[in-house]
Amino acid sequence: MATPSPKHIEAPDSRSVRIVWRDGHESLYGNQYLRLSCPCAACVNEWTGERTIRESDVPMEIRPVSWHLVGNYALSVGFSDGHDTGIYSFEFLRDHCPCPSCHPKTR
Ligand SMILES: [Zn+2]
Ligand SMILES: [Zn+2]
């Protein structure tokens, strides 16, 4: 499959971000989920891959205040907690799509 690319990115409400992909798939990411999935070096240990940010570190009312495309492969997101070093590649975002058809419950 080709690298996924978004057709449209929007914040449908104050709690989530929606990405509509070119293949028609829609992903809805909760703001907190998105913040917790941040792949930057401050949130994930580069060597172990261990996540150093915890759910309790992220305020419930967290929201993205800005985003912009990085080249044609990623999305850079600035959050209301001042964290703006997260660069989410489209592939990463698509992999982390929380919808039931991408992530069927295994338990
Ligand atoms: Zn981060
Ligand atoms: Zn999905």
Describe it:
With about 110 residues, this protein is mainly β. The chain has two helices and six strands. The chain has helices at about 30-35, 90-95, and strands at about 5-15, 15-20, 25-30, 65-70, 75-80, 85-90. It binds zinc ion (ZN) (2 copies). One zinc ion (ZN) binds near residues 38, 40, 85 and 86.
Strand-pairing-aware structural class: mainly beta
Continuous helix count:
2
Q: Give me the strand/helix succession.
A: EEEHEEEH
- Write down the overall mean pLDDT: 93
When the domains are counted, the total is 1
Question: What's the CATH architecture?
Answer: 2-Layer Sandwich
Uncertain segments are none
Given the C-alpha coordinates, what overall shape results? globular
The main sheet comes to:
3 strands, antiparallel
Strand elements, count: 6
Q: What separation lies between the terminal Cα atoms? A: 28 Å
* Ligands (ions, cofactors included): zinc ion
Q: What is the CATH T-level topology?
A: NE0471 N-terminal domain-like
Radius of gyration: 13 Å
Strand fraction equals 25-35%
User: What is the share of helical residues?
Assistant: 10-25%
Widest β-sheet, arrangement of strands = 1-2-3
Task: Jot down its keywords.
107 residues, mainly beta, NE0471 N-terminal domain-like, 3-stranded antiparallel sheet, 2 helices, 6 strands, globular, binds zinc ion
